[in-house]
Amino acid sequence: MAGYKPVAIQAYPVLGEKITQDTLYWNNYKTPVQIKEFGAVSKVDFSPQPPYNYAVTASSRIHIYGRYSQEPIKTFSRFKDTAYCATFRQDGRLLVAGSEDGGIQLFDISGRAPLRQFEGHTKAVHTVDFTADKYHVVSGADDYTVKLWDIPNSKEILTFKEHSDYVRCGCASKLNPDLFVTGSYDHTVKMFDARTNQSVISVEHGQPVESVLLFPSGGLLVSAGGRYVKVWDMLKGGQLLVSLKNHHKTVTCLCLSSSGQRLLSGSLDRKVKVYSTTSYKVVHSFDYAASILSLALAHEDETIVVGMTNGILSVKHRKSEAKKDSLPRRRRPAYRTFIKGKNYMKQQDDILINRPSKKHLELYDRDLKNFRISKALDRVLETPEITVSIIKELNRRGVLANALAGRDEKEISRVLNFLIRNLSQPRFAPVLINAAEIIIDIYLPVIGQSPVVDKKFLLLQGLVEKEIDYQRELLETLGMMDMLFATMTRKESTSLLQHNTSDGFLENRKIES
Amino acid sequence: MVEEESLRVVRCGGSELNFRRAVFSVDSKYVFCVSGDFIKVYSTATEECVHILQGHRNLVTGIQLNPRNHLQLYSCSFDGTIKLWDYVDGILIKTFIVGCKLHALFALACEDSVFVTINKEKPDVFQLVSVKLPKSSSQEIEAKELSFVLDYINQSPKCIAFGNEGEYVAAVRDFYLSVYFFKKKTTSRFTLSSSRNKKHAKNNFTCVACHPKEDCIATGHRDGKIRLWRNFDDEKKYTYTCLHWHHDLVMDLAFSVTEGSSLLSGGRESVLVEWREAAEKNKEFLPRLGATIEHISVSPAGDLFCTSHSDNKMIIIHRNLEASAVIQGLVKDRNIFTGLMIDPRTKALVLNGKPGHLQFYSLQSDKQLYNLDIIQQEYINDYGLIQIELTKAAFGCYGNWLATVEQRQEKETELELQMKLWTYNKKTQGFVLNTKVNMPHEDHITALCFCNAEKSENPTLVTTSKDGHFKVWILTDDSDIYKKAVGWTCDFVGSYHKYQATNCCFSEDGSLLAVSFEEIVTIWDSETWELKCTFCQRAGKIRHLCFGRLTCSKYLLGATENGILCCWNLLSCALEWSAKLNMRVLEPDPNSENIAAISQSSTVFVFRPSEPRPLYIQKNISREEAQWGVFVPRDVPESFTSEAYQWLNRSQFYFLTKSQSLLTFSTQSPEEKLTPTSKQLLAEETLPTTPFYFILGKHRQQQQDDKLNEALEDELVQLPLTENIPAISELLHTPAHVLPSASFLCSMFVNSLLLSKETKSAEEIPDDVSMEEEKESVDSDEENNFTEQVQDTNNTDLGKDIIHQLSKSEEKELRKFRKVDYSWITAL
């Protein structure tokens, strides 16, 4: 025989954003910490090694921040002009940065003065990066050239002059020490091989390229420029995989989540969008106060750091999940109680009888199962969706009046409070008005005995009157709109548009009478 | 080639199972219940119907085991006869002709007569009389020797009970409890306080049960009380105690048989209550049995209970209050809103079942396949409650989709409507809820239909409602990166001058949709949802609407409430013909152009839309008005040659009358077709299930296919009997670690399996198993007599050899096999 069937809780359509596992994940950050920098934050880079410090490039300084510090733990300020693109080496011990005057400086994290200076670019160097073998540096500059430098003897090894406009972004492959990619304002992204001294693949982005990103495997390349983010399949020789147009201003920065499953893009339209890297659909988006120039994610997505044009650095830390364990929990039964009898081997003449698994029932369902109707109703007066479903169920069982009757001042005022809160919502109105009528019928003889309850009734009355006025106004508007529609010439005489009328109207009039 | 017998209307299954208490066989293997003119024998273990005992010519009203032979069964019927059956073989043994309508039957162990309830003169006065059953060898015996026992009793057998091994009989009616003592030949009558008194207004007696060992009578009452009467042999000193749990009337009571220590009661709450030691606080419950408990019976061995329910169901319940089997017939006690449908997958008949359920009922096996819970809410059975009703249902896309509509209306303004769409899940082989639409319309939904065209790639559903709109629902892709999902959304809302939409119908190819708005039929293009044309005959509101099929697909038929059947031609947009017929049912055949219509005066017309002259007319098909009808495609086409019957070649027409009897047109009775499989089951059941059976049974099946190994087969078939050979049982029961080596045992074991000479004669016996499977029935009287003689002679020959090895029950089975075997030889 079928067991007890729990009450079906009516699901109402939820307005606004749909809750998915992604929105839960990306909303699980604390309120951002704002740090004021001296100028627009052009680059944020996390050290790949613990303790995962990050370097922030703004104006002529590079600040290194610790994970939770709001003050920089170190500052590099040996730049005569604006510094660009401070980037950590893979081991986290060296830092390289370009500058407006065309120089490139290499710092030791523990030191203060630059270890090496690479001179050779004639104009501002906007992008620098270490190659995979750690001993070379790639740089791109506004003089349209891309250069490869040797760190030990601080010499220029190669120069590529294939771009025809400013080179503003670049990135070295994490796997192959000879491969790197640069993006330029000439709308192209080129992949260079240090062994061939020319570009091996060139793709046309269509807009000035602001940011490029290679996937850790090196198979996919992401380029951002204009309003577009484009994903290229490098293994197919630079075939366009997908083109995303989700921002309405220039996309300035790109970043991958630590798992590689999500791609983030920041834009001048003050939004950060999160894409799934399997379907390339937007799964979440963040809003910021100003146009975004730089974006970085810490190890395990623990921190999101966003740099903006107004010089503000926004740092968001993930909420710690250990909170629940801090509560003193009841001691659980020992492990052996769970396996008790489970490991028993069936003997020859034994008949194995399985105990039927217990179905979990909500507390209100347990009450309803045992016909404790008032208790069931009292239990659910918090969330209106559940309450309305329970009231419906009690009504179906024909015991709603019994559940509402026989309450003292405190109990009835709880119910009245609930009604006052939710009566005016059209989706609950038909059920709640019925309940309100029953309450009025039951407690009419004793009205005037308790000032608290009387006050609640008056409140309810005022609410209903307000609602009636509101509905009347709505109807008037509807009438006007109908008039307008009627005057318009219609081609189809048969298909009429239905306008939403509030369900609560009829009921409201009834209670009024 | 089917012989051209005359076509007649026959009942097809769906007969009641809950008319009287069920009766168990002594070994609790079978349970018997009356079912219309038949008695059905069910196996308690497998829920299968193993026999249908047919022979009565009217409703069977009572059955009892023969107290002196546990393999026999008495039954009585309205046709005035008491019949004695051998239920193991399903053979009628004797018929006693009493001559008046018999309403109930009771049998006692100590006497050679049975008790029956008969109706004397006035319609409402019943008597309990005992009938002496004369001993005679003839088949039909007159039993006219009636002796009067009790007068003015209730017609129902629930109100009569025999107690304390037949020392007294108790009967209740209205406010009286009468007890008749057989030894003293006196009657005592106890009266409860009158009904005028408001407090006791409802203490009418409803049922009675007697303690099997003690002088104790339990009575059930309309107010839910159970009274236990003691000391009733003295009219002054009698006492009673009250047990009260039921809040509504007590439908039936039963004492547990063996010691009588517990009392079972049931009622409308559909909870079986067991009162232990007859005390108020010692109660056990078995709740949620699904429907009102009508009858309770207890097996003679005391290990099983059986409850019969108002939804045409019997539940076999184990002693420890665990339901072990459910025997479910066609649920019939409720209104049929959904009409009759055919599930395209299972070819099962689908209609309203238990409250809130759709039942899938197999027409071939007269058995419910399963119940689909549509409303999914706890069912509270209380008088006067307005329940959610399942009002509409439709299958679409070859059974892949099911749409259901449920509604509940307490007051004029408070209508709760819900439409649910179910998809067929191939993995679980069942329907799974896909989309739930709250308030799909603002008023009652009058019709819904799927577009069943073959080419349609997108499933489409149309609903019409009294709010003046029809809505088109389509399946849309609802998937995102997390999951794949489909859901139904409203695609189009149409209306016509604010008339109520009453019917809808898709044409066969799905290109046109016809929607009727009261008196007007509108035709819509299903691609663009444009109104194409309208038909109006001003002949009353349209009640039925359907398109013609195949060659007649250019016709549209509509039946109106004023009794006019119209046929429009869609090519010329004009009325083709019309006829004055007041239709109740208008049902197209999915396999042909034929359309069946049943008029208010219970006349069936079968016609093609292309010609107004009907192919077939039959008048007075049933006493009541037919309510619903459906064509069921046949698995194997029949081949009627006569022109009048050709419409039945590819489909069968079933219809349901107002009293919910399911009828069909056939040349033979469908009950005849039910037997072959059940016989087979019975035969297989008799084989003992030993470890050897499992090992060798497999061999046997394989080798039955292999005709070459027939000699070997004979040996193996016999082997199930070898469980009694001591060597083997020893081998099986000794733990392996104390046994000698296998090589040592091998020769002994093999020797024990060889056939010794003395058991040779028994070799034929298992052979008969297959023989019997092939044979369908051996009921003729001549053969019966003959086999009995043969059996006697055989026994003297073989008895000694076998009997020392076999238990008594097995011996009986062996006899049975022999009987069948020899009758088969005579048939040759």
TrEMBL record, chain A:
InterPro entries: U3_snoRNA-assocProt_15_C (IPR018983), WD40/YVTN_repeat-like_dom_sf (IPR015943), WD40_repeat_CS (IPR019775), WD40_repeat_dom_sf (IPR036322), WD40_rpt (IPR001680)
Domain of life assignment: Eukaryota
WD repeat extents: 118-159, 244-285
GO terms (BP aspect): positive regulation of transcription by RNA polymerase I; rRNA processing
Start and end residues of each U3 small nucleolar RNA-associated protein 15 C-terminal domain: 343-484
A Pfam family hit: WD40
Keywords: Nucleus, Repeat, rRNA processing, WD repeat
Location(s), subcellular: Nucleus, Nucleolus
A GO term from the CC aspect: nucleolus
Functional description taken from the UniProt entry: Ribosome biogenesis factor. Involved in nucleolar processing of pre-18S ribosomal RNA. Required for optimal pre-ribosomal RNA transcription by RNA polymerase I. Part of the small subunit (SSU) processome, first precursor of the small eukaryotic ribosomal subunit. During the assembly of the SSU processome in the nucleolus, many ribosome biogenesis factors, an RNA chaperone and ribosomal proteins associate with the nascent pre-rRNA and work in concert to generate RNA folding, modifications, rearrangements and cleavage as well as targeted degradation of pre-ribosomal RNA by the RNA exosome.
Subunit structure, as described in the record: Part of the small subunit (SSU) processome, composed of more than 70 proteins and the RNA chaperone small nucleolar RNA (snoRNA) U3. May be a component of the proposed t-UTP subcomplex of the ribosomal small subunit (SSU) processome containing at least UTP4, WDR43, HEATR1, UTP15, WDR75. Interacts directly with UTP4 and WDR43.
Protein name per Swiss-Prot or TrEMBL: U3 small nucleolar RNA-associated protein 15 homolog
Lineage, uppermost ranks: Eukaryota, Metazoa, Chordata, Craniata, Vertebrata
Automatic annotation (TrEMBL), chain B:
Main localization (coarse): nucleus
Biased composition (Polar residues): 786-797
One GO MF term attached to the UniProt entry: RNA binding
Entry-linked Pfam families: Beta-prop_WDR75_1st, Beta-prop_WDR75_2nd
Keyword Repeat in record: yes
Keywords, alphabetical: Nucleus, Repeat, Ribosome biogenesis, rRNA processing, Transcription, WD repeat
SUPFAM superfamilies in alphabetical order: Tricorn protease domain 2, WD40 repeat-like
Keyword Repeat attributed: yes
Region (Disordered), start-end ranges: 761-798
CC per GO annotation: small-subunit processome
Biased composition (Acidic residues): 764-785
Ranges for domain WD repeat-containing protein 75 second beta-propeller: 340-660
Gene Ontology biological-process entries: positive regulation of rRNA processing; positive regulation of transcription by RNA polymerase I; rRNA processing
Localization: Nucleus, Nucleolus
Name listed for the protein in its UniProt record: WD repeat-containing protein 75 second beta-propeller domain-containing protein
